[in-house]
UniProtKB/TrEMBL annotation:
Gene3D superfamilies: Bira Bifunctional Protein, Domain 2 (3.30.930.10). This is Biotin--[acetyl-CoA-carboxylase] ligase. GO terms for cellular component: cytoplasm. The keyword Transport does not apply. The keyword Transit peptide does not apply. InterPro entries: aa-tRNA-synth_II/BPL/LPL (IPR045864), Biotin_CoA_COase_ligase (IPR004408), BPL_LPL_catalytic (IPR004143). Signal peptide: none annotated. It comes from Helicobacter marmotae. Keywords: Ligase. Residues 23-142 form the BPL/LPL catalytic domain.
Length: 231
């Protein structure tokens, strides 16, 4: 049976349960297997210096880049803020990551519902999934590298200062500043208009985000219909 820890207790436990790997096919799939096999109990974080077969949105493969920050963490559903709908978990953790990166000097923003952008370029993404009584959140961020990459990356000065374990510990520490979905929504609603030139994928179709409104629970209002992200 999973121990029932509060949100703030989970933060401390996450910081002390970071498992490092030189290489994995996917940190999210590894975390998923650890949960299924009862090998690890949440909270924990899986961090790999290299991923060979990472998962992207809508089942796509996340393209490999020369240098990246890739990790997945697991939390019990019971520990999450009570006002957070699980369908909006990617937005919740995406905004926290953006706020953390901004504290380092980045201009990162969250494209609805789970992409990390700087300007018009995608530098990373968030993918969440629920298994049993656990939420797994995977995050990938492209870092600047001397090697050529065709993909946008986190700003060069910030990328070069990142020490992975300290980055993770500080990121998890920043959770202390966000104890409710209401806080996250109050931040995200102010910059949701940055999405106006982009599209949202729904049932294989592209929906212009400028034709939507963001509801208070993180869902979108599209022609009077409430639509949740399932990422």
């Amino acid at each position: 049976m999973l121990a029932q820890h509060t949100w703030l207790e989970h933060i401390s436990l996450l910081q002390s349960h970071i498992y490092e790997f030189s290489s994995l096919p996917s940190t999210q799939l590894y975390a998923l297997e650890m949960i299924k096999s009862n090998t690890l109990m949440p909270p924990f974080c899986i961090w790999a210096r290299h991923q060979s077969d990472a998962i992207g949105s809508r089942g796509n493969r996340w393209e490999e880049v020369p240098n990246a920050m890739t990790f997945s963490f697991a939390l019990t559903l019971a520990s999450l803020p009570k006002d957070l709908k699980i369908q909006s978990a990617s937005i919740f953790f995406g905004v926290i990551m953006c706020e953390f990166l901004r504290s380092l000097g980045s201009q990162t923003w969250l494209k609805y519902p789970n992409d990390l952008y700087i300007g018009e370029g995608k530098i990373g993404g968030i993918l969440t999934q629920k298994i049993h009584n656990t939420l797994i959140c995977g995050i990938g961020i492209n870092l600047h590298s001397p090697q050529h990459s065709k993909y946008p990356t986190l700003e060069e000065p910030i990328s070069h200062k990142i020490e992975a374990r300290a980055f993770l510990e500080d990121f998890f520490e920043s959770f202390n500043n966000f104890v409710s979905w209401k806080q996250i929504f109050s931040i995200y609603k102010l910059e949701f208009n940055k999405n106006n030139t982009f599209f949202f994928h729904l049932d294989g179709k592209q929906i212009a985000l400028e034709n939507t409104t963001l509801n208070e629970d993180g869902s979108l209002n599209i022609n009077g219909h409430k639509i949740y992200s399932l990422r």
